[in-house]
Specification:
- The chain is an alpha+beta fold.
- Helices cover 41% and strands 10% of the residues.
- The chain has a domain of 71 residues.
- It has 5 helices and 2 strands, in the order αααααββ.
- A two-stranded antiparallel ribbon has the order 1-2.
- The protein starts with 6 loop residues before the first helix and ends in a 12-residue tail after the last strand.
- The relative contact order is 0.16.
């Protein structure tokens, strides 16, 4: 990863994610490390990503894995497939497995159960 990583923007963006969403993208050890970074960031102290280049690179990788642009912390622009109208982004996990993240063009509708 050769692009500049905006550590504060990535941490701010990832702080809004739920644990369930992060769990689908990150391994347990990565969640622990990200949790420590988020706690330090919330307390206003320098995080591991601020202090160590390898931790900064890991944070950038996690941001990309979550569909974020590491240089801005914003959602990465993805072109929709003209045939399906869906967007598809592929990310390479550390173990080489491919993860597919799909964003449907229609919102998911939840119906509350009525007793």
């Amino acid at each position: 990863m050769s692009q500049q990583i905006n550590v504060d923007a990535c941490l701010q963006a990832l702080s809004g994610w739920s644990l369930a969403d992060l769990w689908t993208v990150l391994a347990q050890a990565e969640l622990w490390e990200l949790g420590a970074m988020l706690a330090d960031h919330a307390d206003g102290v320098p995080t591991a990503a601020h202090q160590y280049p390898d931790a900064e690179q890991r944070l950038g990788f996690w941001a990309e894995s979550c569909g974020l642009d590491p240089s801005t912390g914003e959602r990465a622009a993805v072109e929709p497939d003209p045939a399906t109208g869906e967007t598809e982004a592929f990310f390479l996990a550390k173990d080489g497995a491919r993860m597919i993240v799909r964003e449907l063009q229609t919102p998911v509708r939840r119906e509350d159960k009525k007793d």
